[in-house]
Design a protein that fits this description.
GO terms for molecular function: triacylglycerol lipase activity. This is Abhydrolase. It holds the Pfam family Abhydrolase_1. The chain has 12 helices and 9 strands. With about 280 residues, it is of the alpha/beta class. Strands 1, 2, 3, 4, 5, 6, 7, 8 and 9 form a 9-stranded mixed beta sheet that branches. α1 crosses α12, α2 crosses α3 and α4 packs antiparallel against α5.
């Protein structure tokens, strides 16, 4: 295993920690949820045999610090952070981009605002609930999560959030998702440290984001929407499937559930390679 090149990038209101490995076509990995660059530990090294792989901690997460810790977060600003990464690490060259969950939402916005910089985007389960016919129900869920967070605290809010994401009558999926590889389990402390920021700042902003469907339709030849094989019926999967349908593209299935890149890294990485090769 080779050590990554580590650096920092100053952006508007934040300083971003980033890591680069390998050589080849440039591939930017945008993490989601409470994950930072470390959430790609299971796949980054293997991908680096074929690509120049860059990933980073999104602003406010892990080692990427905010000038104002209480600043509201916006999808457009997070997408601009990704664009600044491309400008620094892959100037002038169209890049490959993978985004997971909220990172997939940032990747979608990046594609619509800077298509000239993008060769291909693979977006895994972006929870763009505003595209769903029952979006109002999910707006109510997000409001309930925020109210619970303010009045009862973090863990009750997470319980409300997790229940809202699950499919009806699902009692088995959480048990399956607990079987994490050792390196992922070792990140639990950092994950917990990031949770308040995720629940209080990222969830309300990203899950109220409405993608520009018309713009994405014109760019759909550069976009792969993916869903987890084991997360059918869950809210992020439903959002991804509905978005793919709206764009007239086929939803590609990756192993595992919403965090399949963590629970099934080898299989996930191989399918990601196949999705990316179509653009080279």
């Amino acid at each position: 295993m080779t050590d990554p090149i580590i650096g920092s990038l100053r952006v508007n209101g934040a300083t971003l920690h980033y890591e680069v490995r390998g050589q080849g076509p440039f591939l930017l990995l945008i993490p989601g949820g409470t994950g930072g660059a470390a959430s790609f530990d299971g796949i980054a090294e293997d991908l680096a045999a074929e690509y120049s792989v860059a990933t980073y901690d999104p602003r406010g997460m892990s080692r990427s610090t905010l000038d104002d810790p209480d600043a509201e977060q916006h999808v457009a600003e997070h997408a601009d952070d990704a664009f600044r990464m491309l400008e620094l690490l892959s100037p002038g060259e169209p890049a490959l981009v993978f985004g997971a969950s909220s990172g997939a939402i940032a990747a979608l916005h990046l594609l619509t605002t800077h298509p000239e910089r993008i060769a291909r985007v693979v977006a895994h389960e972006p929870p763009v609930v505003e595209v769903l016919p029952d979006a109002a129900e999910h707006r109510a869920l997000i409001a309930h999560v925020q109210d619970t967070f303010r009045t009862q605290g973090l863990m009750p809010a997470m319980a409300v959030f997790a229940a809202g994401l699950k499919k009806d009558s699902d009692t088995t999926e959480p048990k399956a998702e607990l079987k994490l590889p050792p390196r992922a389990a070792a990140r639990a402390e950092q994950t917990m440290a990031n949770l308040p920021y995720f629940v209080g700042r990222i969830v309300p902003s990203f899950m109220s984001y409405a993608p520009d469907i018309r713009r994405l339709e014109g760019l759909s030849d550069r976009l792969v929407i993916a869903g987890g094989q084991d997360s059918r019926g869950e809210l992020p999967y439903r959002s991804a499937a509905f978005l793919a349908e709206r764009l007239g593209t086929e939803l590609q299935h990756f192993p595992g559930g919403h965090i399949g890149l963590t629970t099934h890294p080898a299989e996930f990485g191989e399918l990601l390679r196949k999705a990316l090769r179509a653009s080279i």
